[in-house]
Amino acid sequence: MPNARIGLDIGGTFTDVVLEISTERFTAKVLTTPTEPEIGAMQALDVILKLSGVKPSDVIEMIHGTTLATNALIERKGARTALLTTQGFRDVVEIGTEGRPDQYDVQLIKPDPLVPRNLRFEINERLDAGGNVLISLDKLQVKTIAEKLQQQGIESIAIGFLHSYVNPTHEELVAEIIQAVLPDIPITLSAQVSPEFREFERFSTACANAYIQPLMEGYLKRFELLRREKGFNCPMLLMLSGGGLTTIETAQQFPVRLIESGPAGGAIFASVVAKRCGLNEVVSFDMGGTTAKICMIDNGSAQTSRSFEVARVYRFKKGSGLPLRIPVVELVEIGAGGGSIAHLDGLRRIAVGPESASAFPGPACYGRGGLEPTVTDANLVMGRIDPEKFAGGDIKLDADAALKAFGSKISKKLGISDQAAAYGVSEVVDENMAGAARVHAIESGKSIPARTLIAFGGCAPLHAVRIAEKLDIARVVIPASAGVGSAVGFLRAPISYEIVKTQYQRLNSFNFDLINLTLAKMVETASEIVKQATKNTTHVERRAYMRYVGQGHEILIDIGTDHFNSFSAETLRQTFDHEYERVYGRSLSGLADIEVASWVVTVATDSTPDINVHNQSSLINSKQIVMSKLPPRDVFDPGQKQWLPHNLFSRSELAPGSEIQGPAVIVEHETSTVISPGYNAIINTFGDIEINRR
Questions:
Q1: Residues 119/211, Cβ–Cβ less than 8 Å
Q2: Which CATH number characterizes residue 45's domain?
Q3: Which of 272, 401, 587, 694 is the most buried (most CB within 10 A)?
């Protein structure tokens, strides 16, 4: 019986689906249905089943990721949520920290908290930093508040008390009392969703989880029902922001961990490509219909973090969004996708995004009622896209509608041609993405030019070489199945779960018995969650966030898996001093004590090996320049600022070893790759397009 696996990625514009069976891979794209994403998902599954000839009963596993949680936070379309917190800390989520995205802006705009002040309730209770009770919980007050919540039509509740990460007893007692009055209302405990110090970030994460929980729970239940009715009786796992997979039950309890699921799948995909091509330093570039994501990958592993921001008020500025403390693949995301809308700003300059035309009405050229020019419209006007073969011919594009959109919104106002307006839009969006990559590299302490750019997503191959020119990158790789890269990445991800917990320790007074007990409980909890999804062998990784006493930021240290003993403090000290010197160029060894802020435990299975796709198995040992069987097409080249004839190639007809000289366009079902003059491309043994500056 066939053993097929499906990866399903719901984006803001397209829903991507990948089916792998033995050494064959089938891929498809359909437009997302924003109001009912489960409908578009089922349409995608219908398409892939028809394409592959596989029956639902032949599928043994389905991996799913979605932008639904992200969009709900950005668009503020979550549940009516209440926050219960310690007396005197009602306004923590509004005050935030002393950090400002722009310290000189006297009219600074901060993101509004997800829970308005009238729905934030103070409860008389207090713990000290060690988790000891200073003020006992007022249970009668909690019951009174529960009745108020019932009257106000609250749909979800977040509970966040001071120092509950050390002792969650008060949060758990409040949840019991509230649940007795409101048994159908979901409750999020900050001690469960983010058991770390720094109450602003912890409360913000708890509020975000509660805010999207009813929405995500409802969606997952509806989709699960539809796929079961269709005959998919296999398990379904959800992609997490940190790069692992988990069960539907865990996803429903902690939906905040799904927020960056799609980009995380893309980073895994790029990591797999980097490993198989032997690339140690990579820039991952994922550009879809709504956003572009950039991630640094070193030695086959993407950068990770335990915090990030969502819904930034200022596009590229840290501190202007809602902070979330969850494990996440570290990347920069900007509103630059195929559907990003172009417009003139207050100074009559061309600007692009972050607003998107999404799937409906979509770019003007989709002919679905969109009137605003987008990046896709610009690519069509510049000749990069064949209007008859877009998305494999499933979507016919209207070039006249694209020209009309540019004429009414940009060209006539600037007194330039529609083609010049399209060129301007393309250059602006490319520079935005290149600029974001430069900033991200600087913030990460890394260099860009020596890296290889791995580009994927439906729109990235159209822009990758031009961005490489701007970044002085000499090599670009467009992987096989690039148009649905995130969905392929889902199928490579391990089943895993990560727990981060604050248990403060100074090495001069290290309590190894307490830490051994804490870590053992964390391993047990994470293992139970992973075992719900798989019976495969797992491995444990333990790390610690450490710093010198008096510092405000930590670095992550691998602490091994051995039990701590009386000699462990000195071992930790030496490990930290060595890593600190590697990162900062010097250490403070002997000048200051060292402290551990938080402990990290990850339980995971091994990653799923990449498949050797059947149609890539016949190799050509020697390079040979191939001639196009298709008539050339004039494409506007931004580098030379003129129209140039580009040879056209069908990717499905290019065997490994085939060499192509730019300028050229390689067309495939989900995307097209534009090769600029001055670059050559070769198809490698894995079917990837390797583009090199000549």
A1: no
A2: 3.30.420.40
A3: 272
Beta bridge partners of 343: 351
- Token code pair at residue 511: 């309590």
Q: Is residue 673 part of a domain?
A: no
Stated length of the chain: 694
**Among 350, 347, 336, residue whose Cα is nearest residue 424:** 350
Instruction: For residues 100 and 178, state if they share a domain.
Output: yes
Residues 56 and 142 both lie in one domain = no
Angle, in degrees to the nearest 10, between helices 169-181 and 139-151: 50
Spans of the chain, pLDDT less than 50? 1, 615-622
How far apart are alpha carbons 281 and 450 in whole angstroms? 8
Distance separating alpha carbons of residues 477 and 412, to the nearest angstrom: 38
Domain span at residue 537 reads: 496-604
CATH number at residue 585: 3.30.1490
| Residue 35: per-residue pLDDT | 84
Phi–psi pair at 214, nearest 5 degrees: -60, -40
C-alpha distances in Å from residue 545, one per residue of 85, 109, 291, 548, 571: 27, 32, 31, 11, 15
| Cβ-proximal residues to 487 (8 Å cutoff; 6+ apart), any chain | 7, 8, 9, 16, 17, 18, 27, 65, 265
Q: Given CA atoms 650, 651, 657, 662 in this order, what sign does their dihedral have?
A: positive
Same domain, 82 and 202: yes
- Cβ–Cβ under 8 Å, residues 522 and 501: yes
Quick check: is 527 in a domain?
Answer: yes
Q: Count each helix (H run) and each strand (E run) in the chain, helices first.
A: 17, 36
pLDDT in tens, 512-566: 999 999 999 999 999 999 998 888 889 999 999 999 998 888 999 999 888 888 7
